[in-house]
Amino acid sequence: MNVLVTGAAGLVGAEVCARLTRNGHHVIGLVHRVRTLTANNGRHVRAELVTGDVTLPRLGLDEPSRRLLAARVDLIVHSAAITDFGRPRETYEAVNVAGTANVLDLATEAGARLIHVSTAYVCGEQDGHILETALDARQRFGNHYERSKFDAELLVRKAAAEGLATTVVRPSVVVGATRTGVVREFKNIYVVLKLLSEGRVTAIPGHFDACVDLVGVDHVAALIADVAENRADGLTLHAVGSSVSMRHVSDVLAEYPSFRVPRYVAPATFSPAALPGVERAYWDRMLSLYESYFRRRQTFDDTAAAGLRTNRRATNGPDQLRKIIDYAVRAGYLGAPLPGVDEALAEVGR
Ligand SMILES: NC(=O)c1ccc[n+]([C@@H]2O[C@H](COP(=O)([O-])OP(=O)(O)OC[C@H]3O[C@@H](n4cnc5c(N)ncnc54)[C@H](OP(=O)(O)O)[C@@H]3O)[C@@H](O)[C@H]2O)c1
Question: In what residue span(s) does the Thioester reductase (TE) domain sit (predicted)?
Answer without folding.
Answer: 44-224
